[in-house]
Each structure stands twice: as structure tokens, then as C-alpha cells.
Amino acid sequence: MIRPPHNERATIIHLVLIALTSWLAIAAIFFVSGLDWIEDTDSGWYWSIAEDLLRFDSAVTIGFPLIWRGLAEAFPSVSPNVLGQIVSLCAYVVMVPVIYLILVELEISFARNATLLIAFFPFVGVTYSVFPRVNSLLRLIVFVAILAYLRNWTWPLILCLAVLPLFHRSILLTVGIFVLIGLRERKLRWWMLIPMSLPLAFYWGAGVLRNDDLFWYLGWYEADSVLGLPITDGLFGTLVLGVRGSIADLIQGAIVLGYWLLAIVLLFSRSWKPHPILLGLILPVVVLGLIQPEKEIWSMYQYTTYSAIPLVVYLQHKNYVWLERSSIWLVVLPGLLLSQVAWAIYTIRFFG
């Protein structure tokens, strides 16, 4: 393992300040627009669950709403919109040094710039961290789980894997892969599955009693098919809708397909082989791209923010000389920030 540099603390502080400044800049765009998160966006769905924690909804599980409700009870004079954004901001700011420490463990020579590459992931890296919704917390817990795995912190790893399903049901695939790899590499033991499964077991069981539905948590439903395909309908259906006249669908479809193909490249590159746990960040993108319908396919793109870590490992594996050139990053990183601005404006127009 490459030992962290002596100025690691200064590097982390610098990274956090850059991330915080970028977050405030994107937040300012939304603030000027007058967008009301609860009234105007799907964040209102999370707040509705926070107001009624006994409403067991598979689409919005209890993790983020419970934290949001707790803060609202503790600070009743503060707007729920502000409190929700504070949770997202804190998760985002803490996530940045966690990413950096992961990359140090993975022996990434350009760890500082790679951290910003992941934090500024195209379009949604910062933008979705401004939303008062689960994205930032979910990313933070996944990355803490990766760091715990790499550093052999068994109980922090168990805790992360135990609470992740309470934040979103689609993360079950990632958790399952982490567990299987952990068992295979003897970083987890079979008996650890018991404490790991207790939070979901209690939550799922309470939902069964409330909804009178054994499979309520999975929330499977019949979605309208665009192409009538058993798989990849959402992946290619979005492009088809774009060709039929929806520019937004065409752009979204091109982005999603591009990153799905990138996940395929990362999977077959085998650059993850020295660290099999990275499969838990690649395979969910591949699988979700195959099975999700058109109306939900964009959530697959959100999971590509996790596959940015295997992407960095792949670039390191290729040993590209240009990765060490500061002039390249002076172009790449501002470009990524501009993509956040573009997506923020698109989001305002979409919900406005």
C-alpha cells in the first residue's frame, strides 16, 4: 500500500474546500431560481414519508426520511427544505475525503485529481448533492463501506451493509455483491450475516404487517414497454423516444447508453481483479441497464457515479502519461463543473 503523503491533511482540507465551494455555487443557482424542493420536485416524496414514517413505501425507504424527520423535530424553526439540504451537504463534504482515502488505498498516483473527478462526476456529481434526497447519503455509505473493506474494518463494514437497504431498495444488488466477495475473500464470516440482516428484517417485517404484502419492499410493478423487449427496453427505448422527437430523451438516452457501455468495458477489462470488491460498483450498472424500464432508467446513471472509482483504477492500470499532467486537469475539472451548471439549469426548467 502507498502510504499517504505527509501533507495528507492539507490535501484533504483543500479538496473539501473545493467541493464545498462548488456545492454552494450550484446551490446558489437553485436558490436564485426560487425552486421549492418539497413543492416542486420529487424531493417532496421523501418529505411525505418523513411526515408519516409508518407509511412503508418501496420507492422511498425510511433511511433518509427518518434523518430528515429527526432534524425537523430538533429544529422546528428551520425550513424542512434547508434541513434536507444540510443533510445532503454534510454527506457530500464528508464523502470527498473518504473518496481520497479509498484512492490512496488503491495506490492511485493521481489520487487528488481523481477525487475531484469522482466528486464532480458529469452532470449529477454536485447537482444531486444539492437535492434534499437520498443520493448523497447513499454514496457516502457505499464509499465508507469500500474504505472499511480495504482497511479491514469489519464492524464498520457490517454496519454500512446493514443500513444501506434502509436507504434504497436498488442498493440490494450492491450489498449482495459486497457480501459474496467478502465471504469469498474471508473478510466476512457467515455468522456476520445475522447482525447485518437485522435492520432490513425488522423494517421489512413491519412493512408486511402494515401493508399486508409479503413482497412490498421489492415493489415490483408492470411498467409500460417502449420496444416490447424483455431486457434493455429502457436502455434503448429512451433513445427511440428521442429519435421520435424528444430531444431530452435523446440526450438522456445517449448519456445512459454511453455509461452502460463504459461499465461493460470496465467489467471485461479485469482491471478490478486485484480488488474484486470493485465489482460491486460495476455490476449494478450493467444489470440495472438490462432490466430497468424507460421511466426508471435514469436511476442507472446515478449508479454510474459509483463506477467512477473502478474507472480511475482502469485509467491507472493503463498507465496513461497524460494523467500526471496538470494542464489536462485544468481543462477536465472546470468542464465537469460546467456540466453541473448545465444540469442544474435543465433541472430548474424541468421542474419549473
Describe this structure in words.
The protein is mainly alpha-helical. It has 17 helices and no strands. The protein is globular and about 60 Å long. The model has no long low-confidence stretch (mean pLDDT 90).
Summarize the structure.
The protein has 352 residues and is an all-alpha fold. The protein has helices at residues 8-33, 37-40, 43-51, 63-74, 80-105, 111-119, 127-130, 135-150, 154-163, 172-184, 193-211, 233-243, 247-269, 279-291, 298-304, 308-318, 326-351.
Share of helix, binned: 55-70%
The description of the largest β-sheet is: none
Q: Could you spell the SSE succession in H and E letters?
A: HHHHHHHHHHHHHHHHH
What structural class do helix, strand and pairing data support? mainly alpha
Distance between the termini: 49 Å
What percentage of amino acids are in beta strands?
under 5%
Low-confidence stretches: none
Overall pLDDT score: 90
* Oligomeric state of shown chains: single chain
Number of helical stretches of at least 4 residues:
17
Computed Rg: 20 Å
| C-alpha geometry | globular
Number of strands: 0
